[in-house]
Amino acid sequence: MGENVVGQSVRRPDLVEKVTGAAEYCVDVTMPGMAHAKVVRSDRAHARITGIDVAEALAAPGVVAVVTAADIASLHARFGHIITDHWILAPDKVRYYGEPVAVVVAETVAAAADAVELVRVSYEDLPAVMDAEAALADGAPLVHEQAYEATGDESFKNLSHVDEGDGAQQVPSNVAHEVTIGWGEVDAAFADSAVVVENTVHFPMLYAYAMEPYNAVASYAEGALSVVSTAQHPYMVRDDLARVFDLPLSRVRVTSPYLGGGYGSKSYTKVEPLASVASWVTGRPVKLTLTVEEAIYTTRVDSAKIWVKSGFAADGTILAREFDVVMDSGAYADNSPLVMAKTVNRCFGPYRVPNLRVRGLSVYTNTSPASSYRGFGAPQGALAGETNLDRAAEQLGISGADIRRRNLVRKGEEILPGKRGIDADIPADLEMVVESLERDRKDVPYYGIGFGCTASDAGAYPISTAQVRIQIDGSVLVLSGSTEMGQGSRSLLAQVAAEELGVDLAVVKVVQSDTSVTPYERTTGASRTSTLVGLALQRACADARSRMRDMAAELFECAPGEVRDRPGAVAAPDGRELDFGSVVRQWFGGSAGEVTGVGLLRRDGATQKMPPFWEVGMVGVAVEIDPETGVVAVDQLVTVADVGFAINPRAVEGQDLGAATQGLGMALHEELVYDGPQLANANVVDYRVPRTTDLPRKIDLMIAERRDGVGPYGAKGAGEGTLNPIGGAVAAAVARAVGRWPDRLPLTPERVWRLMNRD
Amino acid sequence: MTLPPFALVRPTTLDEALRELTEDSVPYCGGTELLLAMRAGLHRPDALVDLKRIPELTGVRAGDGMLVIGAAERHADLATHPLILERLPVFARMEKHIGNARVRNQGSIGGNLCFAEPKSDVATLLMALEASVTLVSPGGRRTVTVEELIVGPYYAEKEPDEILVDVRIPLRDGLRGAYVKFQTMERPTVGVAVLADDAAGWYRLGVGAVGEVPLAWSFGSLAEIDPDDIASRVDPTPDLAGSEEYKRHVTAVYVRRALAKLEQVSS
Ligand SMILES: Cc1cc2nc3c(=O)[nH]c(=O)nc-3n(C[C@H](O)[C@H](O)[C@H](O)COP(=O)(O)OP(=O)(O)OC[C@H]3O[C@@H](n4cnc5c(N)ncnc54)[C@H](O)[C@@H]3O)c2cc1C
């Protein structure tokens, strides 16, 4: 519709530097006079700390300091954006194997690593709870004996849309967070159902593997803190750090260079407090870089056990659904309460569910803390909801497509009362997937097709700001507090600015993620950047244009209302044109100056209703199984990106292929396995992520563009949706290939072989 | 973990290298195993003695009914070496599918044997081929079979002051061979080598990666090889790739697949 730059698969500006290795990541950043930190970690799951002897470590060559909880007791030494339960350094007891107990600061990484071995921590073991079941048992030992104040993060309530448990737990327990939602008369509807289908699924404990492990370099000097880190949400980290040191927000600067992947694992605060307190104690800039193993012990993905029951009329119409979700959230809450809140919203799917009851428990255990993961609870929830639907179809004698056709909501219908109606044509997306899968169905034994749908309340809380700065040569700086973590946001934002201002894409430069330079952005997550930053940026461009017109009116000596917009320029009523650069130069005089446009977005107008948009997940797979070994080969992968409008189609395809591949990892290979207090596979040799050779034979990445989003040009976000239904789709495909329903992921060769050979 | 500091010694003759070796000064070739072990804190030598510049440890040649491969030869080069492709294609194919591109381009055949990683393809096939190795120490030179060398997981029967110089594989005219492996993780779950010299009535089967050490047996004919019997002879190590029961099962499957593949190989 007349756009020139958006809608094109332009080459991303960071492509060459990333491929050649020239791009600067956080791990490459140094600060003058920097010392190096290594972390002393707990070697047990749950124990009281009875003493820490640092003398020998302090005496070792090159050691600057050994920081323990006692050294930072005068600070607010905890963080956590929802529940501030996360101790920077374990003060009196450790709650999981791998928990930071002390930080050794030394002149070199090797000296720090050597001295870590010399810190003697004495413990008195406590009984541990290694899984959710043990943690919920009567008389279970407590992971946290105390309750913590909430941070007062207002938007958490708005985001989660649930009846929170009353928060203040009367009796201390291992429940970190509890949520329930529901409506209608569930029990009565079950009683009226022709068919009731009930099953339980187990979602594996995962690690959102990103190539760059967590790292940060921090400098605390003269009452100000400056941190460069792998933070996905630098502003959120700034807020946590300001609380720790009781500093004004303006005196904390968090910068995130390119991130080597995140997938949720880099949302919120991770290693920044460790590096910061080490700098605060030593008065030197301190760099801390974790290994992959340490990264796995820093944040993992919530595992879940989900019981689901659905009642249907004889024709397959859903009458009621009920879910019971228990998540193992590890030793600290981190973002798990939000993950849980999202799971309960996302488990029942984009269907008409007249009666619903969902209960969710996020449980503390003595394991690595869990937090955000691409899809936010949807991968967990959808595995339950979607396999339950497919099992029901089998019992009802109808196809997996038909049961969905009967129950999918149409455009505009609400799936959460009072929330935004569905802004997508999901039934049409389903037909695209089914058609593609069936077209290439192979007629061979042990072959099965599965597909699934999800709708996620995406976009997170709509607070976004952006700036454009028009230079005297007409080139444009775009400033955004969002983060580039591989998703290609720099080309997307540049495209929007170039489109709005009518300038050449080559003169637009995007600058991101520096809390002292780039304007506020709440988060880079929930697939929000194209939609929400895109809107803020459109407004910033409109603001810049309006200033240009005002300035040009002075130069043209006409009324501002008479000045016309032209591509990269303005025009007077008499037809005289001035390009942006000329306007700036002539208005300021002296060939200098610039014009800044500001765009602000809040819950208002088009973004009043939550969520800002629904992210549809629509995928299908076909699998072929080796019956002798149980190996599952993926023959087809079919996805639909229901993005409203693809600002950069290739970027959308990249997101979908990446998300789907990550989903195939969780469906077929990935699982963190605890063996006693410790993980058996906290490394990427034994934690098996997808490889190029695992890629499906046929990959069909489709884009549905119906301009039905609130974002620029009708766009909605992408990035998470395609991962969400993959687990259920693979489980259903395997079930159809072997004639039995699996109840857990990943479907490793042995699990499939056992499923086939079980009596 | 970070690599601890160490000295790097780069001898250019075998004698020089032998003089450098002590308990704390160890041989280093591709480093694919050694450096990982050092990073994991399992091993902390003061010095690494780089073997890659010693001529005696390089090259591939045939003579006296033997194929002789220098210990420092890398997997990637062996996979494409014309002499190996011509005389022992089953070995070249096995080398082609080792680990990943980085391991193949860096890891050596000698390092593979000396590290005695239980999940090795190389040792399994070499054992089936009745190969031996030459070990040299300041005190002299000896030849041992691969079977004698690989005595346990991560345990090669050699002295710290011995260097593995070459691998010697007896050549047989008209040898047919197949090597297949089942691999779902980073390393094989089971590898099966089957070799047939029909004229000599010589038949060998090797099974590796599944237990602590590879095993190999001789048979009077291919028909004597009973996959289920072989599966009962191995002692699988249960791990993340599978339970003992499952690994025994896939051992039988892959013995069957190896035999089927051999049928397609002409001499
Ligand atoms: C990720 C990964 C995947 C792998 N996958 C496979 C696979 O699929 N199949 C397979 O068979 N193997 C596999 N390997 C093993 C690989 O083949 C070996 O790591 C490699 O060949 C070892 O050789 P190197 O030269 O790197 O040894 P180094 O690491 O240099 O040395 C290993 C050990 O041997 C000693 N050493 C080395 N050379 C000599 C010598 N000439 N004389 C005396 N001592 C010596 C060293 O002191 C050290 O103790 C894998 C390894 C990795 C890391």
TrEMBL record, chain A:
Keywords: Molybdenum, Oxidoreductase
GO MF entry, a single one: oxidoreductase activity
Aldehyde oxidase/xanthine dehydrogenase a/b hammerhead domain: residues covered: 20-127
Keyword Nucleotide-binding: no
Pfam families: Ald_Xan_dh_C, MoCoBD_1, MoCoBD_2
SMART domains listed in its UniProt record: Ald_Xan_dh_C
Signal peptide: none
Protein name in the entry: Xanthine dehydrogenase family protein molybdopterin-binding subunit
InterPro entries, alphabetized: Ald_Oxase/Xan_DH_a/b (IPR000674), Ald_Oxase/Xan_DH_a/b_sf (IPR036856), Ald_Oxase/xanthine_DH-like (IPR016208), AldOxase/xan_DH_MoCoBD1 (IPR008274), AldOxase/xan_DH_MoCoBD2 (IPR046867), AldOxase/xan_DH_Mopterin-bd_sf (IPR037165)
Domain of life: Bacteria
Glycosyltransferase in keyword set: no
Automatic annotation (TrEMBL), chain B:
Signal peptide positions (record): none
Domain FAD-binding PCMH-type: 1-174
Presence of the UniProt keyword NADP in the record: no
UniProt GO molecular function: FAD binding; oxidoreductase activity
Keywords, ordered alphabetically: FAD, Flavoprotein, Oxidoreductase
Superkingdom of origin: Bacteria
Pfam family for this entry, one: FAD_binding_5
Transmembrane regions: none
Name the UniProt record assigns to this protein: FAD-binding PCMH-type domain-containing protein
Native source species: Jiangella ureilytica
